[in-house]
Design a protein that fits this description.
The protein has 194 residues and is of the alpha/beta class. It has one domain (5-193). The chain has helices at 12-15, 27-43, 55-62, 109-120, 137-143, 179-193, and strands spanning 5-6, 21-24, 47-53, 71-76, 79-80, 83-84, 95-101, 105-106, 124-131, 150-158, 171-176. Strands 2-11-10-3-4-9-7 form a seven-stranded mixed β-sheet, sandwiched between helices. The model has no long low-confidence stretch (mean pLDDT 90).
């Protein structure tokens, strides 16, 4: 990437659509359904790796004894809907990286940095200290290698959206990283380049 990316104003509505499966409901309901999905993948003999984007999903996964061991990476900015949020981290992560990322955009360096983090296989906390983390889900999906024995799952929070082409309820989005999703993400990244 040779420059920072920004969402064109005319394309904003496309970026509000869930990238994967929307699990609608309260935090308690969605986490319980996420557990069920992961148990099913384990029963089908997949190794499961979990990548989180957002503070609320990170908080909920870290607080859940079943889900916590699957976490490989959390991307947070310690804000939720513009309010500060504190996440109890303790000694769970092997590495913490601080990063600045523009609001409504993607800093060009994030692509190479996320490639490195995922290749290192260290349990990493990626903290956006200035700006916001939402759109980092795109370079994250592109950085995750495909492996038929591994279910690489990216989760992020979905706020309720009423100004979209259609209403979207609140919940968690589960992105099963595979070829089709990577192609979709690539198209989004190309839209942002213009």
């Amino acid at each position: 990437m040779d420059k920072n990316l920004k969402i064109p104003t005319t394309e904003r509505h496309k970026f509000s659509q869930p990238l994967g499966k929307l699990i609608a409901g309260t935090r308690k309901e969605t986490i319980s359904e996420v557990e069920e999905h992961i148990r099913n993948y384990e029963n089908a003999n997949f190794e499961v790796k979990v990548y989180l984007v957002g503070d609320i999903v990170t908080k909920d996964f870290l607080a859940n004894d079943f889900l916590k061991p699957f976490i490989k990476l959390c991307i947070i900015d310690e804000k939720t809907q513009r309010n500060q949020i504190k996440i109890e981290i303790e000694d769970f992560f092997e590495e913490t990286i601080e990063f600045e990322n523009p609001e409504g955009g993607i800093k060009k360096e994030s692509f190479a940095l996320l490639d490195e983090i995922i290749a290192s296989n260290k349990r990493t906390l990626f903290k956006v200290i200035k700006g916001e983390e939402d759109l980092l889900v795109l370079p994250l999906v592109l950085s995750i290698p495909l492996n038929e024995n591994v279910k690489n799952l990216v989760f992020y929070g979905q706020p309720p959206i009423t100004d979209s082409k259609r209403q979207i309820p609140e919940g968690i989005v589960m992105v099963d990283v595979e070829k089709r999703i990577k192609k979709i993400v690539q198209k989004f990244v190309l839209l942002m380049k213009n």
